[in-house]
Design goal:
Blueprint (H helix, E strand, L loop, with lengths): L1 H17 L6 E14 L6 E4 L8 H13 L5 E4 L20 E3 L5 E3 L2 H12 L3 E6 L37 H19 L1 H5 L2 E4 L12 H18 L5 E6 L4 H13 L14 E7 L3 E3 L2 E3 L2 H16 L9 E7 L20 H21 L3 E6 L17 E2 L2 E2 L1 H9 L5 E7 L5 H7 L7 E9 L2 E9 L8 E9 L5 E9 L6 H7 L8 H10 L3 E2 L4 E4 L4 E6 L3 E7 L1
Parallel strand pairs: 1-19, 2-3, 2-13, 3-6, 6-7, 7-8, 8-9, 9-12, 12-13
Antiparallel strand pairs: 1-16, 4-5, 10-11, 14-15, 16-17, 17-18, 18-24, 19-23, 20-21, 20-22, 20-24
Helix pairs in contact: 4-6, 7-8, 8-9, 8-11, 9-10, 12-13
Pfam families: Glyco_hydro_39
Protein name: Beta-xylosidase
GO molecular function: hydrolase activity, hydrolyzing O-glycosyl compounds
């Protein structure tokens, strides 16, 4: 009997510890009178493989929501804008049939589907980060087979079909780009197209290009020449290499600066922006998903170092063409269990923690970063919460989208903010966020009579077993009283996934259930706005993998 009592007490202590009995604390100090830099909305960039989802039901709905959450125009990047086909979408596939040829090999241009895609953006005040790719079937040096039949669980290299090869005629390729840009100016106006960015291909150093490095440089030169012939003031860049592709990026930049241009015969090629990718690498350890924020940050750093090698590139716009916790958006958790983090709040807290460190790293290397594309959109007509890397499922917003709604509320300048539980940048670059303590981090901004504080409780291990006490001290506001509004993402708030599980995880929810899920998917205000004396410390609890935004008005 005594032994059973001892076992019971031991289990009870463990449970109490996990549920907050031995609660840890975090002390945060925000100095609103110490500006760091303007709060650039680098997060307001999104992308996806399947361009035909753009104008479908759930695609249009999500684009509307994304456009509304941002105080600035959102940029959108999509693959397959020049791929041949009838516009029927599939995973990691899309097509527009922009280019075909007649029996004599003369070009036939058809902008109908591309216009449908770009019209959807422009109507919502969004702008294309227009990707020039992939290779039309009529131009490919190896056109057969052309459309791949890839599905999750199949080897990634099976997507490499006719669309991934160099053109059989580079002049025709350059003229295709010229005609596309010319058409865009005619349709949308010179001033509008001048505000876009154009870029050539995707990950030429990896799984998306079946030519040599020099083949890609030639592809870029002819495309850039086509862009500039149609609109000399248009902005074009590259090379959108993989996260580990810094050596390839180095060679590409050198080509653009000092090599002979394949299209013009002159020295150099237009380079108005530098683009690269950065990805993390989660894995499953003893049944638990363990992220690697370190891997993604090291991708940022290695490519920043390459850019800083070239004094000619000082202040050049930099765009992270894909910036994500891992690599394959269309790989659900049934085939890739390491992706099980995507439905719940871990994707939210990871996003908050990683963007904060991206701002810090960008300051350190003095990079003119203008955008970091979150490669996450939606997958039309797929099972509910299938674990794709998406912002919404069947028209219902997932918790991660609410982090971007929080970012949309952060204006003005970034200001100094400290937490005694926030991992420093060097520690993360060395060993990620793997120690016993979670990363209770903070990012804060101040505008005229307005401020915002984002706080997260993140750890690389996908566990949600604790709740910490947070204390926030407000300094330098020059006002005795503010109106405080709280928004929160955790298991109870701003979380359609938990709401869906409580319903019994229905794969065919009825209209009433869908309405409840849509409501649960919105950013939730916790309590009501209230008056708060700035001389006092703010105190609240925050779950592990939770995120809170404190909005201050006066």
């Amino acid at each position: 009997m005594k032994k059973s009592k001892y076992v019971f007490l031991l289990v009870l202590v463990q449970v109490l510890f996990q549920t907050g009995f031995a609660q840890k604390k975090a002390t945060i100090e925000v100095n609103f009178d110490k500006n760091i830099a303007p709060m650039k909305p680098i997060w307001a960039w999104f992308g996806y493989d399947e361009p035909n989802y753009t104008y479908m039901k759930d695609g249009q709905k999500l684009l509307t929501e994304i456009s509304k959450l941002s105080p600035v125009p959102v940029y959108v990047r999509a693959h397959n804008l020049l791929t041949s086909g009838d516009g029927t979408p599939a995973l990691k596939w899309g097509s527009t049939n922009a280019y075909t040829e007649d029996a004599n090999g003369n070009p036939i241009y058809n902008w109908k589907i591309i216009d449908q895609i770009f019209d959807t953006y422009i109507k919502r005040g969004m702008k294309p980060l227009a990707q020039i790719g992939f290779m039309p079937e009529a131009l490919s040096t190896h056109p057969i087979p052309y459309q791949h039949k890839w599905k999750p669980g199949v080897r990634y290299d099976e997507i490499l079909t006719g669309w991934a090869y160099p053109p059989k005629d580079y002049k025709k390729w350059g003229n295709l780009v010229y005609e596309w840009v010319k058409h865009s100016v005619e349709r949308y106006g010179k001033a509008e197209v001048e505000s876009w960015y154009w870029e050539v291909w995707n990950e030429p150093d990896g799984a998306y290009w079946k030519g040599t490095q020099q083949d890609f440089f030639k592809l870029y030169d002819y495309a850039a020449d086509g862009v500039k012939r149609a609109l000399p003031s248009a902005k074009i860049g590259g090379a959108n290499v993989t996260g580990g592709g810094s050596k390839y990026l180095d060679a590409f930049i050198s080509h653009c600066l000092v090599d002979t241009n394949y299209a013009t015969g002159k020295i150099g090629s237009p380079l108005d922006a530098v683009l690269f990718h950065a990805k993390g690498s989660p894995r499953v350890v003893n049944g638990t998903v363990v992220m690697s924020i370190k891997t993604q940050l090291k991708n940022f750093e290695s490519n920043y170092r390459i850019i800083n090698k070239y004094p000619q590139l000082k202040n050049i716009p930099v765009i992270i063409g894909e910036s994500d916790p891992e690599g394959c958006a269309a790989c659900g958790m049934s085939t890739n269990p390491e992706n099980a983090y995507r439905n719940g709040t871990m994707y939210s807290s990871y996003t908050a923690a990683s963007f904060a460190r991206l701002y810090e790293l960008t300051d350190k290397y003095s990079i003119n970063l203008i955008g970091a594309v979150t490669w996450s959109f939606e997958f039309e007509n797929q099972p509910w919460f299938a674990g794709f890397r998406d912002l919404a499922t069947n028209g219902v917003d997932k918790p991660v989208l609410n982090v971007f709604r929080m970012f949309g509320l952060m204006k003005g300048n970034r200001v100094e903010a400290k937490s005694d539980r926030m991992y420093n940048l060097k520690s993360i670059l060395d060993s990620s966020i793997r120690k016993t303590d979670t990363d209770v981090g903070v990012l804060a901004t101040k505008d005229e009579k307005y401020a915002a504080i984002m706080i997260w409780n993140y750890h690389d291990e996908d566990k949600n077993i604790s709740k910490d006490l947070i204390s926030v001290k407000l300094n330098g506001l020059n006002t005795k009283t503010v109106t405080l509004t709280k928004y929160q993402i955790d298991n109870e708030n701003s979380n359609s996934y938990e709401a869906w599980k409580k319903m019994g995880s229905p794969q065919n929810p009825d209209a009433k259930q869908i309405a409840q899920l849509e409501k649960a998917g919105q950013l939730k205000m916790v309590g009501k706005p209230s008056k708060f004396k700035t001389a006092e410390n703010l105190q609240f609890e925050l779950n592990r993998q939770g995120v809170i935004l404190l909005k201050l008005d006066w």
